[in-house]
Amino acid sequence: MKKQKAIVVFSGGQDSTTCLFWALQQFGEVEAVTFDYGQKHRLEIDCAKNITQQLGVKHHILDISLLNQLAASALTREDIDIEEGQDGGLPSTFVPGRNLLFFSFAGVLASQVGAKHIVTGVCETDFSGYPDCRDQFVKSFNVTLNLAMDEPFVLHTPLMWLDKAQAWALADELDAFDFVREQTLTCYNGIMADGCGECPACKLRQNGLQSYLATKAGQEA
Ligand SMILES: [Zn+2]
């Protein structure tokens, strides 16, 4: 795949940054796309810009503010608090159809720039109940996209079956551990690197990190 081109769906968070490093290793040419949907934390977009600049990756920022107009969530509205889902319900950070829209736009962009591959950091292991992070959705969408565009796109999900500790291990394998730890933004409260430590995204990230570091220390001992 060294001669082929890939588009990475890129938020500037831990997962998509790990995917960006993965793509740079796999493909001859890589571009990244970030969607601006009126995120509460504008720092997310700055983070994404900063990372692509450092890695010398062409960066597309697409305005899809209609997502905010369509669907309110804790990621886009100041007046909605971040809450974990109760009784199996979805958390307040859920944006319905977000990946459906992201992947559709990424598909159109891929066609425009001549990329056959689309890489995304979605993951079924820690998917918080978001239905459009599931493997079955991605596979089904891949078929739909190819029919819609009449092109043989391949969607890649390198993190699909990894838990957060394994995602850190992958970043480490790609020689990107420190970079991912220091330069990315996962926190729902908009704090870079290790984050606020309190929100669900930080807790997930921290638990994974601690578990990975503990395993690594065990192996080295
Ligand atoms: Zn946080």
From TrEMBL:
Reactions it catalyzes: 7-carboxy-7-carbaguanine + NH4(+) + 2 ATP = 7-cyano-7-carbaguanine + 2 AMP + 2 diphosphate + 2 H(+)
GO terms of biological process kind: tRNA queuosine(34) biosynthetic process
Pathway recorded for this protein: Purine metabolism; 7-cyano-7-deazaguanine biosynthesis
Signal peptide interval: none
Pfam families the record matches: QueC
Ligand binding (Zn(2+)): 187, 196, 199, 202
Required cofactor(s): Zn(2+)
Domain of life: Bacteria
EC number: 6.3.4.20
Cofactor note: Binds 1 zinc ion per subunit.
Residues that bind ATP: 10-20
UniProt key word Metal-binding: yes
InterPro entries assigned: QueC, Rossmann-like_a/b/a_fold
GO molecular function, one term: ATP binding
Function: Catalyzes the ATP-dependent conversion of 7-carboxy-7-deazaguanine (CDG) to 7-cyano-7-deazaguanine (preQ(0)).
PANTHER family membership: 7-CYANO-7-DEAZAGUANINE SYNTHASE
Subunit details: Homodimer.
Recorded family membership: Belongs to the QueC family.
Name by which UniProt lists this protein: 7-cyano-7-deazaguanine synthase
Provenance organism: Lysinibacillus macroides
